[in-house]
Design goal:
193 residues, alpha/beta, Rossmann fold, seven-stranded mixed β-sheet, 6 helices
């Protein structure tokens, strides 16, 4: 069984934020596979189905982003999911908008949702599907963004131009998940990274 998690913040206020691209990608994947996110399990909205010969659980944590590990660890324990069978879709500031990177393991890269999952699972050895959202423009004379600028950026909505890019990448993430399920991580990385 595979557990596919999209990260984001629950509620309408956050629905179109850059930080919620994980939710957006998961919703698209679930819809195209005929899976309804109609159950509440632990601290997540979940749905189940069979995709590419694998039993899958799709989940949107209903904790806020920084507490994602609480919901994910409950699902991992409940369904006895190994790290190899956990896929997490999330935003990435260090990738240009619309770029995808797949990998297993590694650090959180400063992403609080991933950090929370690593902490709660006691392992970083799960598969990440990183979706680039880019960084906010630097204030003149600054070498890097301040934390408050980053927070404002990820919690603001995509611009209309960015949305055009995201509307192209969201179906690509679904294709990458299908490739992961059917052909494995190495093939998916070679194809989508």
């Amino acid at each position: 069984m595979k557990l596919i998690v999209g990260l984001g913040n629950p509620g309408r206020t956050y629905a179109h934020n850059r930080h919620n691209i994980g939710f957006m990608c998961l919703r698209h994947f679930a819809r195209t596979q005929g899976i309804r996110l109609d159950k509440k399990q632990g601290q997540a909205r979940t749905g189940t189905g069979k995709v590419s010969g694998s039993e899958v659980i799709v989940a949107r944590p209903q904790t806020h982003m920084n507490l994602s590990g609480q919901a994910v660890s409950r699902l991992v324990n409940r369904f006895k999911i190994s790290p190899d069978d956990l896929f997490v879709i999330h935003d990435d500031l260090d990738l240009p908008p619309g770029k995808i990177r797949l990998r297993r393991g590694g650090s959180s890269g400063g992403h609080n949702g991933i950090d929370s999952i690593i902490t709660h699972l006691g392992s970083a050895d799960f598969i990440r599907i990183r979706v680039g959202i880019g960084r906010p423009p630097l204030v003149e004379g600054s070498a890097r963004n301040k934390e408050a600028e980053i927070i404002d950026y990820v919690l603001s909505d995509f611009t209309s131009e960015e949305l055009k890019t995201m509307n192209k990448v969201i179906p690509e993430v679904s294709e990458a998940i299908l490739c992961l399920l059917g052909e494995g991580l190495i093939t998916a990385m070679n194809k989508y990274n």
